[in-house]
Amino acid sequence: MTVQLYDTKAQALRDFAPLDPGHVTIYVCGPTVQSGPHIGHLRGALTFDILRRWLAHRYGRVTFVRNVTDIDDKVLANATDGEPWWALAYRMELEFTRAYTAIGILPPTYEPRATASIPQMQEIIRRLIEAGHAYAAAEGTDAAGDVYFDVRSWADYGSLTRQSIDAMEPAADADPRGKRDPRDFALWKGAKADEPSSATWDSPWGPGRPGWHIECSAMARRYLGSEFDIHGGGLDLRFPHHENELAQSTAAGDGFARYWVHNGLVTVGAQKMSKSLFNFILAEDVLRERDPLVVRYALAAAHYRSSLDITTSTFDEAEAALDRIRTFLERALRTLRADEDVRVAAAVPAAFAAALDDDLGVPQALAVLHETVRQGNSALDAGDGDAALRAFADVAVMTGVLGIDPLDPQWRSTDASGEASALDALVQTMITQRADARAAKDWAAADRIRDAIAAAGIALEDTADGTHWSLIDG
Asked: What's this model's pTM, rounded to 2 decimal places?
């Protein structure tokens, strides 16, 4: 067993070897909660949910940390007199949690808020100043109280994205008049007259608040230690956020992340989805219109490092694929009387495992899954119960690993369950009426009933143990 992951820093596939062979540690940059989630946020969170599930399958234990950035320039900018920044941040945090839960993303082991780790951030800043890698802005200037990372003091700055300092854009995160170099970035931001006093903490450099980048360095260290296995996030976070995290943490003496994993972005019309570009699709809108399981499948089906262009067909194709899986599982359950013991006892098929071991190859893993569904249906058609049972068990364990088992109770809402029960009662009544007509040799009546059922989009299957119905695809 060798799991390989594409390491963004190395720009190559690397064999994954956790620090502790029985315990994987992962830190993923979570949302900045200035507004609600769009589907790009869901795609990113889902990438690391599947990675976490697979590494837990391979190594047994995973500590998964996903932070909440609840103090930031954008959070303050979106606050109002009627809703202070901390209230806005909490309300938006709940929206993210609801959306994540809706598509089956497992809750993190720890989900720290930035505002709960201010002392840890100040400690890293203190170490950087003592080591000569950070400095406070001069007194008597508009930047007084700010502390900056000195990018030219750290020879490895730019190593994550392989840029030279002179080719980088200036850091637009604080008053440039307080900086020695325009590319220096803020570690601590001195209190400003136009910002609320509730967004201010005491510090050795004066009252203020943390810069964005120092927040993740402090939280990762606090919850996972000075060195951990994987740092994840969206491709758009590589620079400046992750570049700056890496520089400040390593300059402070920490090993920090051993592997850097980034997911590709969601696009609309081949353009990056972004709140700043106003071309985003809100998660709540998608989840209102589509089955959450369909959303999960659609966002997971492309390779995690590729861009995913969202169209209506993206969700239509996912729905059709899930219908094929669901139809087979339900058919197998009816025919074989398979139970939960079969599902639990099954091992992951070798080809499926090989696909996920190869840089989380979900498209290839789904191909194995659908081929197994095809083989299972063929076995049922041929009356080969043993082969069909093996296929059922394999499909059940594969969908379980990916979190897309359509028979899992988590995907059954109360309303949907009630509707399904009502529909089943109606169809079963018509099936009984058709059986009575056939028993009376009233073939015309039996055909009329079957035609009425078919016109409603329902297919009947006559078997040795009775007649069963299913919805017709499309």
From this structure: 0.86
